Amino acid sequence: MRKILYLTDSHIGADTTAWCQQPCCPHLLPDLWNDLREFVAANPLDLVLHGGDLTHHGTVDEQREAVRIAVGLGVPFRLCLGNHDLAREGALESWLSLGHELFGERSTPSGDFAVDLGSAILLVATNTWRDSDQPWFWSLEEALSGPVLADRQYMWLKEQLAAHRNKPAILAMHETLYPLPPRLTGLEQPTHEPSGFDVARTRGFVEEHDQIRLVLSGHCHATCRTYDNGCVHLTTGAFFEPPFQVRILTVDRNGIDVETVCPSAVAKYNPPIDEGKTWTSGQPVDRRVRMNF
Q: Structural domains in the chain?
């Protein structure tokens, strides 16, 4: 059995002007990290996986702070890079240098890596944006085609799935593959639709490889569950927005159990809440999920 804590979108280095669903609380991050450290100490884990946007600008200073925090949790910590983590030229290279321990010993040049969970395999892939001058560099100032995976990343995923063909797979990437549905938001139409021509290709890849049972994503700052052809897609609310959610994945030979918890008590900090968007914390079907192998 393996236990994984999954969190996403902590945005180290952001201020209150950062895009958010609920009012973001960058000033609380030191306390939130301390609460998480205490939670990890009290609840034995095998791995902490961050789903991306660990930092807001991807600067060297933010990267060093992120590594300090990650190492300080006292359990293996892995990072699935998000767009904000790659928001400057050369960010990927310095992540793989300064934060090499966040990607394991066998990561690819684009920061992709695999983690053997015993009864399952975890595959982590870095999204890129093709309209950028450099691969794996994201810029607000550039017209973006949307997040993609490079051809060689699809090849790497196929190789990993083949090498572990007898194990169900969990795929982690920062971008979502599906919008937030009206049943969650109460809106008439889906929102936060993933953009770009490659979304259909990635959806198709997941559909073609039924070995992939679970897809973990961040980016949309909301906790949601979507089913597609037997695969479960989960997004998770931003760590620096109330109610400061994380997910606990328990993986054993029978399946995957996912629960959503809040290591930081919201009442302790009394953060501002957008009552019109309380849906961002998800419904019961979004927060607790069971997949049988």
A: 2-292 (3.60.21.10)
Instruction: Note every long-range contact of 91-96, with CB atoms under 8 Å and residues 24 or more positions apart, other chains counting.
Output: 91/58, 91/63, 91/136, 91/137, 92/126, 92/136, 92/137, 94/60, 94/63, 95/58, 95/63
Query: What mean pLDDT do residues 171-185 have?
Result: 97
Smallest CA-to-CA distance from 40 within 287, 245, 268, 263 is with: 263
69-118 confidence digits (pLDDT tens): 999 999 999 999 999 999 998 999 999 999 999 999 899 999 999 999 99
> Helix or strand or coil: residue 247?
strand
Q: Can you point out the beta strands (E) in the chain?
A: 2-7, 47-50, 77-79, 113-116, 121-124, 128-129, 147-148, 169-172, 212-217, 224-228, 231-235, 246-252, 255-261, 289-292
Q: What is the pLDDT of residue 139?
A: 73
Residue 107 near residue 92 (C-beta atoms within 8 A): no
